[in-house]
Amino acid sequence: MASAAQVSDEQAVDSVVVRFAGDSGDGMQLTGGQFTLSTALAGNDLATFPDFPAEIRAPQGTLFGVSAFQINFGSRAIHTAGDQPDVLVAMNPAALKVNVDSLKPGGLIIADSGEFGKRNLDKAKYETNPLEDGSLAKWQLLAFDISALTLEAVKPFGLGNKEALRSKNMWTLGLALWMFDRDRQPIVDWLNTKFAKKPEIAEANIAALNAGHAYGETAELSGPVKQATLPAAPADPGLYRTVNGAEALSLGLVAGAQMADLPMFFGGYPITPASAILHHLSRLKEYGVTTFQAEDEIAAIASAIGASYAGTLGVTSSSGPGIALKGEAMGLAIMTELPLVIVNSQRGGPSTGLPTKTEQSDLYQAVYGRNGDAPMPVISARSPSDAFECAIEAVRIATQYMTPVMLLTDGYIANAAEPWLVPDMSDYTEFAVEHMTQAQEGGFKPYGRDEKLARPWIKPGTPELMHRIGGIEKGVDTGHIDYGSENHQEMTNIRRDKVLGVADSIGDQQVELGEAGGKLALIGWGSTYGPIHQAVSRCREKGMDVSHIHLRYIWPMPKNLGELLKSYEHVIVPEMNTGQLKTVLRDQYLVDAKPLNKVSGQPFTIAEIETAIAEALG
Amino acid sequence: MNEITKIETTLKDWETDQEVRWCPGCGDYAILKAVQRTMPMIGGSPANTVFVSGIGCSSRFPYYMETYGFHTIHGRAPAVATGVKLANPELDVWIITGDGDALSIGGNHTMHVLRRNLNCQIMLFNNEIYGLTKGQYSPTSREGTNSPSTPYGSVDHPASPCAFALGSGARFVARGIDINKNLPDVLMAAHAHQGAAFIEIFQNCIVYNKDVFEDFAAKKTAAATQLWLANGEPMLFDKGVKGIALDQDAMALKVVDVVDGDWEAAGVLRHDVTNRSVAHMLVELQFGVFPMPLGVIYDDPKPTFESAVVAQNEAIAANKKPDLQALVSKGQTWTVSEDGPDL
Fold it and tell me: Which of A265, A468, A480, A483 to mutate to test the interface with B (most CBs of B within 10 A)?
């Protein structure tokens, strides 16, 4: 892969990685998001990785206040946000310091020299100015005073200095758009909409955008920046849009509720990175969605259970610490056998951990983390667009089996955007719920069961079917309080078998890439899909016997999974935790699954996984 | 409550076939009967009624009511009830809780269900003790309470349920006593109130805190120790020879003697259930110096939570047409044909 700087007009590049980095208040996420949009509109495949600090506005210029947004886009299928950037846009010394080491040798640095004064250099702990001391020699450097250029560009609009400098990110975006031959119009439209009530701000931003673009275009620049045009990536025909995981998941929940023919009740409590789901759903009232911002995590799930009890689809969402608080209520939903979808947008833990960094370390919590024998289906999304499908699947399982279901996603999926082939909703099979309105033949049994072992769903308000439920052990069929020893054994078995029975409805585990059987399989789950897939693909191109398996169903697992894993000589489980799926696989199938772990708050790089494959096969 | 068709029922229609498992002599029996007596009087429908409880002796209550019932987890009944009511505002929702359930582990939810003004009845059985866990002191236990966890006496200050409720924004606050014949009247007033109706019921735990309310609950001294409040009526007790008046210098209530029934001359206040300031004073009265205020202390409705939620949902939805295909296709889109993207 060539860096953009090295690209001549004739040279073909198939993908480029650009990282925008600046202060958390510099609008880097916004810049990245808009660049993503314009890239998607140019028909490139892409993947993004927002990386921002937990503080909303960390002290300006500091190392821990650096916010970055990375995008990998190109003319081949993109599965990850890219390992090493080809281009780094650094808005201040701290952003340069934090990010420069990951830049590819020979890569391009674009720096705002206007921000490299002594004060900012001190804050970033630079003794001398790196733009001048030769320490950046292994990269190509392009430093100019973006601050001054921006001020000049927005001068006609009479903004204050502080206000005017806010347009710096748009200036930079304009330059980046020029570098990669992207259309400015979508950004202009977006700015006009966003600042509809403050037209002077919209105009200033557009002026900055145009100035950045013009700066690249005119001969003012000599040096390494050259325009790189990437041809569009091959993709399945159809209508596309970009989507991030939180939005796709929200849409999937809405679609799932519609397929179940139910109104949806969403109980949530704000927590990073899960809040975006609450935000999305609160705007979808016309789809029968009621959102409730509860007083705490427990009330969020308890209200969702109450809503499910009353006959609607209860949904709650949180991240690890909040999920821990919901644990007791999950047990109540298991005991009372009510449908419920619990979304966990995982983040680094334990405790408060790393709120804005991604991790997959809540698998034990999802599968095992409740008191008593409390089985619950667990499924996991692999990508933003897969979150849509998984949300529908979670609703299906919850309503068909009368059980809470946990849907795992993570901070990376929630925030990352990718092009999405818009689904044709008529392709989906509905699974309309029927509440019980008349007692079973032979007498009313609130805990009677169908062939899937699901009990009837009876809405309060239904005449003649009054009954009481609760967290105390239920009598078989009657649902009355029953502390009997044989009854508890039987009910425990029923709850276990009902959840295991979900495996009857999910089909066999497929191999994503490679063959069923061989020397080596990599089995992953969740957002590690991209790097695993890419690494396996590259190794197979080199002739290595390695396959990629990716799990959606964490519990229960597909019925053929044990046999499938045993058909390989070696199994490696790459995970962003210390080996949680590995433990479950070993326990379930007695396979010698080897862990490959990373908990740095960053996704795996393709190279890391390639190295592990080479070692295993070497 | 919502205006629903009144149903003809008898007390028997509200009894379940389940064996009632409270200790013999427990005040809960009397409360259960009072509720079962009240339901026919309000014309309730068993199928449309839901009792939601938390954990504790009182929270077994739903099992004994021939209605829909949900015995949830400790302290969380108000949160579950909120989901029930938002999902189906037509249901008549009753929350059954205790002093530990509502004010200790579930204090947060009690505050918020009152603040939001969910249309429901909240019956707090206050026995000033943890019964189900065998007698530890509770957040309403008086200072110095000897219990298994406080063998040398408790040292912390008790919470006042009605003051807590008012402070949380409750628009209906009432008090009753388990064995008192007026309890159904209090429950009917609570049910008639549109919004969260908070009722503290003094309940005698005969095993772990026997007769702790005897000072004012005992029948033979009741006249002098109970102040029954009625809207528009003077605040009189002790057979009309004493009353409650305002000490204007102290900005506080005081007990005054009423001579020859001339309560107006004595400056006795007329009870106004909509007077929030006086309600605050009434719930803070120190028993002993004052009688125990009972009945409806405060009743001043304002719009309910679920009606506001439903109204907003409907207003927003009214202008929009749900179209799932359009929803997933939203935003800036592009088309890829067989030959690549159309730009």
Answer: A468
